[in-house]
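Structure in, sequence out. Go:
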């Protein structure tokens, strides 16, 4: 699966109709969630039937304007939140154990207040023959939009497009196409292996001593963000209808946050792709970022580094290039000496590894990267020498996620 995103170019009246479709999608999702709360034993099929009932209800005539499959997608979103709550709920017998250790939100499902997208399946839209225009044909009659994208959609048929989603962002409206396509890239194998240690001073240091700088996009934009936030706060009128000046300031602030987000994503993609292209085996530390950001002193810096996003793209590019990507536990990678294995205690401010036993002197991140590579090679050797594979070593196969995994599917 691949995802192609294009910007929608239309008129203000067309954008207003898209907003109506998004609000209707949010209404259907919240109604499904309420139906689940009020009734016991509700299944996914019950929510699908509720979509049809809402469309036929005279009190909610606007629901019928939304495409039937788009209504079903909204019900699927509600059911996804419900199923996550059930499968990851903490048991009463042992509150420290969950039924499934899945990442993501695991709390009680909540109502959506500011939904920003509506999702269509196979109907409700139509592409032009040249793939440069799209027309939405449901009851809202938003009409035709120009598609601005660097990738040409003419090479893919409508049968290959599994889903189409409209997303509203601070700088406009975008259309995402989920396409059934197996992406493979040729890779020239040279026998290069590398271990990387993720950090805050440097974004990562590899086992060869090479470093990649940490750009700190949020820190650099912080002054501008504070100015825009103060402007929004000054123009906000509590308990009253907000002025146009307030909404103008709010949009400027949202655009600045969007810029920072895109800078991080672009940096993560480029660094991950360069690393995969130049190596055949990559070992990285499997950091629990969700737990690390609980440290209020380092939370902003850790979030700004965007390690998790980098690792996701690293796994994806490793999959399509046919290379090996191994996560290892980060325990003792900083303390252990990469030369002799002796333990050398360090504080966070100690940036140099100095081993008293063997005399090895290295940067602490370089030493950790060498230990990470050694751990990965040991895991790989155990896997190759074991007849039982992953079940014997206790190592989970890295989740090489494709572009379609970034799609919040139902």
């Amino acid at each position: 699966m691949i995802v192609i995103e294009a910007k929608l170019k239309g008129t203000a009246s067309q954008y207003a109709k898209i907003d109506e479709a998004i609000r209707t999608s949010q209404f259907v999702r919240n109604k499904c969630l309420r139906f689940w709360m009020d009734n016991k034993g509700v299944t996914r099929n019950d929510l699908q039937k509720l979509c049809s009932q809402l469309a036929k209800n005279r009190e909610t005539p606007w629901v019928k304007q939304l495409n039937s499959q788009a209504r079903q997608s909204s019900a699927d979103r509600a059911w996804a939140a419900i199923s996550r709550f059930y499968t990851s709920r903490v048991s009463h017998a042992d509150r420290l154990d969950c039924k499934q250790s899945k990442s993501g939100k695991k709390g009680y499902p909540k109502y959506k207040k500011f939904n920003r997208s509506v999702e269509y399946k196979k109907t409700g839209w139509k592409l032009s023959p040249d793939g440069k225009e799209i027309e939405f044909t449901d009851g809202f009659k938003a009409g035709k939009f120009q598609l601005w994208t660097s990738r040409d959609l003419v090479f893919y048929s409508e049968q290959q497009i599994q889903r189409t989603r409209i997303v509203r962002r601070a700088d406009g409206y975008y259309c995402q196409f989920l396409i059934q396509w197996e992406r493979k890239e040729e890779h020239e194998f040279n026998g290069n292996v590398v271990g990387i240690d993720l950090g805050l001073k440097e974004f990562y240091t590899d086992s060869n001593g090479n470093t990649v700088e940490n750009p700190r996009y949020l820190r650099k934009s912080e002054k501008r963000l504070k100015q825009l936030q103060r402007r929004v706060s000054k123009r906000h009128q509590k308990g009253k209808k907000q002025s146009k000046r307030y909404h103008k300031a709010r949009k400027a602030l949202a655009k600045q946050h969007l810029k920072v987000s895109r800078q991080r994503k672009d940096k993560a993609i480029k660094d991950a792709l360069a690393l995969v292209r130049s190596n055949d085996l990559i070992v990285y530390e499997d950091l629990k970022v969700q737990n690390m950001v609980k440290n209020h002193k380092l939370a902003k810096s850790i979030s700004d580094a965007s390690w998790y996003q980098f690792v996701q793209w690293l796994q994806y590019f490793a999959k399509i290039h046919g290379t090996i990507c191994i996560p290892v536990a980060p325990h003792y990678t900083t303390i252990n000496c990469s030369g002799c294995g002796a333990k050398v205690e360090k504080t966070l401010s100690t940036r140099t590894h100095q081993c008293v036993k063997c005399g090895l002197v290295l940067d602490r991140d370089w030493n950790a990267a060498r230990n990470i590579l050694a751990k990965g090679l040991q895991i790989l050797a155990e896997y190759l020498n074991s007849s039982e594979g992953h079940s014997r070593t206790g190592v989970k196969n890295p989740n090489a996620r494709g572009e379609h995994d970034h799609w919040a599917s139902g």
